[in-house]
Design goal:
The protein has nine helices and nine strands. The chain has a single domain, classed as Vaccinia Virus protein VP39 (Rossmann fold, 3-Layer(aba) Sandwich), CATH 3.40.50. By secondary structure, the protein is α/β, with parallel strands linked by helices.
Amino acid sequence: MQMSLELGKCVSNCGEIFRQRRMFRSLASVEDILRCPVCGVSMRVSNAELKCVTGHSFDIARQGYVNLLTNKTFIKNADTAAMINARQQMHARPFFQDLARQISDICVEVSQSSPAATVVEPGGGSGFYANALIRRVDAARAVSFDISVHAAKVCAQQSERVAAVVADVWQKWPVADDSADVVLSVFSPRNFIETERVFKTGAVLILVTPEEEHFVEIRTKFNALGIQSHKNEKIAASLENFTKIRQSVLESTELLNGSAQCDS
């Protein structure tokens, strides 16, 4: 009986070590493009830390993400666990599944010329879109970062090829110059200065923004904030250094029950 209990303990511990190593693998897969948020030099995964060559180190959380915020005080606008859960419920609905498929289709095209594509997803939340396209392109890898720790926890547990990082879209991204084949910005804040910095020659920006009628019924019912008038025209004016390849509008109508209305 004593031997049986000891064996059970050993299996449990080994399983935990294996789980942790698997979680670290996603960060190790992109360590060549990660940069220290303090001094900007290269970083490497070492045991349960991400370390730069000058000595700055950042603990890798048990869930597999790393927090690279240099100021870790409470961020008022960071998504909460409840908000992340609600968004996951919405992502399971047909409209967002279709959107993820269309985004993935573009990445499949990009992979024809860059099979081992590197995807950078600023403001990626739970990494839903990065994970959707990674599943379609076998050799691709991604780093998805968000200011929400709760989002990073969810993102880190989805794929070994999508690294989850806590970072601020409006600060310098913890990513090397000329490192991204694809920058993926879906309903997220847009830092085009940093986008240009990380762009490889011939890279692609996939930009998804809401039209003025997006969720208009829900916003009207709950008296929620509206979408800024002529928002997309203003965004277009900020893209003067980019060449538009294509543009499309995805539109559908779905009947949402009470809980889905709250999730939206």
